[in-house]
C-alpha cells in the first residue's frame, strides 16, 4: 500500500493543467450502457474510481478500449444485469447504474451501497424517484432488485437537490414514455456535462444547471463522441496548494465560472487571483487571513468537496475561521489528523472552529477519505519537517498523479 512522504516548506511555482472531472465521467460512463451504442469519450482522467467503473462495464459485457485519455465503450454486447458486489462496495457511486440499466433492460440487481466514511449517505431519494417512474424495487439480503415493465415520464419533486439522484432520474427518464420533470434538481456543472453527453446521443433534455430539468423520452440513442469537462475540485485543490505554500501557480484548462465560490473564499483569505479564458494564476505572498465563515452548500455554493482542503489552509491562517458543513454528516475526520500536526481545531457536530497557528509540523498521518487525504497532502506541503501519509488509495480515487504534478511545481514529495 503506497505512502506519500513530503518534506514541507517548498514554495510552489509553475504551470499545471487540470484533468477531466471524476464526478462528470462516472455518470457518463454509466450512461454508455443505455442505448447499446458506441461512445468515444476524450479527457478521461486516470483514476481508481474510473477503473472501477470500467471493471463494472466489462463485467456486464461491454467492449472497452482505452488509449491514453480516450475511452471507447461499446455497450451492445451487455448480457448481465447484475453489478458485482465487491465493485459496488469499492465505489458507492456505482448506484448511478440503476437508472441507466433500467432504461436499457428494465432490470438491475445491485447490492445496497453501505455506509461510508463521510456519513451514512442514504439513497432514499433515488429509490423514491425511480418508484415514481414505474420501477418496482425489492430490497432483500442487502440487495436491490429493481424492475420496470415500462418507465413512464413523471414529475419528481426532490426533497433535497441530490447530485446522484438528479443524475439517476435523468438516466432513467431518457427513453421513458412521455416527459419527466425534476424540480429542485441539483445544479452542479457535472449534471450539465451529463445532459450534453446524452443530448449528443439523441436524448431530449433541457434545464441541467438550473433547478428544473425536463427530459422528453426518446426512442433510441446513437453513437456519440464527447469530451469530459475539467475537474473543478482538482483545480481548487491546486489553488490551495499554491496558496498554502505562498506560491505562484498558473492553473490551465479550468472553467472559471465553476470556480467562483472557491475564488471568492481564497480572495477573502488574501490570495490574488487573475483569470484569463480557461486559465488562472494564483499568487499569495503572505500568511493567509482567516475567513469568518465558510458554509458548504449545493452548487453554486461552496463545494463540500473543497471543505477539507480549505481547512488545511485556514489551520495556518492569521485568526479564527469557522466552517459549517451542511451537506454531509461526518466530514471532519481530517481535523483530527491536522491536529496531530499542531493545528488548533475544535469540532462541534457539523461546525469546526479553526484557530490559525503560525505553522504546522510534519507528522505520520492517515488519509481517511478522498478529500480529507488531499487536505493532509496540502498541510504537509506547508509543514515544517517530514509528513508521511498512508492509505493513499483514497487519494488515488480522485487525483491523477498528484505527487508527480506537485513535484513538477517544486514540492519535495514522493510516493514510497
Ligand atoms: C456527489 C459527488 C460528491 C459530492 C456530492 C455533493 C459524485 C460521484 N459524487 O455525491 O463528490 O461530495 O455530490 O456535492 O458525483 N442524500 C440523501 N438521500 C439520497 C441522496 C442523498 O439523504 O437519496 C443526502 C446525502 O446523504 C448527503 C446529501 O444528500 O448528505 C448530498 O448528497 P448527493 O448530492 O446525493 O451526493 P452524491 O451524489 O452522493
- Average pLDDT, all residues: 96
Percent helix range: 25-40%
CATH superfamily of the largest domain: Enolpyruvate transferase domain
Number of helices: 14
Any idea of the CATH class of the largest domain?
A: Alpha Beta
Strand composition percent: 25-35%
Structural class: alpha+beta
Give the count of structural domains: 2
In CATH, the architecture of the largest domain is Alpha-beta prism
- Give the strand order of the largest sheet, numbering strands 1, 2, ... along the chain: 21-22-1-23
Q: What ligands are attached or bound here?
A: uridine-diphosphate-N-acetylglucosamine
Task: Give a description of the structure.
By secondary structure, this protein is of the alpha+beta class. It folds into two domains: 202 residues, UDP-n-acetylglucosamine1-carboxyvinyl-transferase, Chain (Alpha-beta prism); 206 residues, Enolpyruvate transferase domain (UDP-n-acetylglucosamine1-carboxyvinyl-transferase, Chain, Alpha-beta prism), CATH 3.65.10. 32% of the residues lie in helices and 25% in strands.
Give the helices and strands, then pairings.
Blueprint: E1 4-7, E2 13-17, H1 22-31, E3 38-42, H2 48-60, E4 63-67, E5 70-74, H3 85-90, H4 97-105, E6 107-111, H5 124-132, E7 136-140, E8 143-147, E9 155-157, H6 163-173, E10 179-183, H7 189-200, E11 204-206, E12 212-216, E13 224-227, H8 232-244, E14 248-252, H9 260-268, E15 272-276, E16 279-283, E17 294-296, H10 307-314, E18 320-325, H11 333-340, E19 344-348, E20 351-355, E21 364-366, H12 370-382, E22 386-390, H13 393-396, H14 402-408, E23 412-415
Parallel strand pairs: 2-14, 3-13, 9-10, 17-18, 21-22
Antiparallel strand pairs: 1-22, 1-23, 3-5, 4-5, 6-8, 7-8, 10-12, 11-12, 14-16, 15-16, 18-20, 19-20
Bound molecules: uridine-diphosphate-N-acetylglucosamine (UD1).
Amino acid at each position: 500500500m503506497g505512502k506519500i512522504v513530503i518534506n514541507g516548506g517548498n514554495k510552489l511555482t509553475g504551470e499545471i493543467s487540470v484533468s477531466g472531472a471524476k464526478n462528470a465521467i462516472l455518470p457518463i460512463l454509466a450512461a454508455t450502457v443505455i442505448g447499446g451504442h458506441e461512445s468515444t469519450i476524450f479527457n478521461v482522467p486516470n483514476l481508481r474510481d474510473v477503473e472501477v467503473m470500467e471493471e463494472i462495464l466489462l463485467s456486464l459485457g461491454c467492449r472497452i478500449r482505452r488509449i491514453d485519455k480516450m475511452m471507447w465503450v461499446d455497450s451492445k454486447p451487455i448480457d448481465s444485469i447484475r453489478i458485482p458486489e465487491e465493485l459496488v462496495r469499492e465505489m458507492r457511486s456505482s448506484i448511478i447504474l440503476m437508472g441507466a440499466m433500467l432504461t436499457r433492460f428494465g432490470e438491475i440487481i445491485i447490492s445496497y451501497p453501505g455506509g461510508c466514511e463521510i456519513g451514512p449517505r442514504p439513497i432514499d431519494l433515488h429509490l423514491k424517484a425511480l418508484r415514481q417512474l414505474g420501477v418496482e424495487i425489492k430490497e432483500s439480503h442487502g440487495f436491490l432488485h429493481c424492475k420496470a415493465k415500462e418507465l413512464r415520464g413523471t414529475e419528481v419533486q426532490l426533497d433535497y437537490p441530490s447530485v446522484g439522484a438528479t443524475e439517476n432520474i435523468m438516466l432513467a427518464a431518457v427513453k421513458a414514455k412521455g416527459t419527466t420533470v425534476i424540480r429542485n434538481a441539483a445544479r452542479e456543472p457535472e449534471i450539465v456535462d451529463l445532459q450534453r453527453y446524452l443530448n449528443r446521443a439523441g436524448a431530449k433534455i433541457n434545464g441541467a444547471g438550473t433547478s428544473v430539468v425536463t427530459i422528453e423520452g426518446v426512442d433510441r440513442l446513437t453513437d456519440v463522441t464527447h469530451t469530459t469537462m475539467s475537474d473543478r475540485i482538482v483545480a481548487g485543490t491546486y489553488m490551495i496548494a499554491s496558496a498554502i505554500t505562498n506560491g505562484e501557480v498558473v492553473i490551465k484548462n479550468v472553467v472559471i465560472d465553476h470556480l467562483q465560490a472557491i475564488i471568492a473564499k481564497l480572495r477573502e483569505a488574501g490570495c490574488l487571483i487573475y483569470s484569463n479564458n480557461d486559465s488562472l494564476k494564483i499568487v499569495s505572498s503572505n500568511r493567509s487571513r482567516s475567513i469568518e465563515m465558510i458554509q458548504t452548500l449545493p452548487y453554486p455554493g461552496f463545494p463540500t468537496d473543497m471543505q477539507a482542503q480549505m481547512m488545511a489552509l485556514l489551520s495556518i491562517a492569521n485568526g479564527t475561521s469557522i466552517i459549517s458543513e451542511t451537506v454531509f454528516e461526518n466530514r471532519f475526520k481530517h481535523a483530527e489528523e491536522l491536529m496531530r500536526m499542531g493545528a488548533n481545531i475544535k469540532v462541534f457536530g457539523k461546525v469546526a472552529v479553526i484557530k490559525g497557528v503560525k505553522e504546522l509540523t510534519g507528522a505520520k498521518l492517515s488519509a481517511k477519505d478522498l478529500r480529507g487525504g488531499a487536505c493532509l497532502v496540502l498541510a504537509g506541503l506547508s509543514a515544517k519537517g517530514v509528513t508521511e501519509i498512508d492509505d493513499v488509495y483514497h487519494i488515488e480515487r480522485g487525483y491523477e498523479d498528484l505527487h508527480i504534478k506537485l513535484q513538477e511545481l517544486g514540492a519535495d514529495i514522493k510516493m514510497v
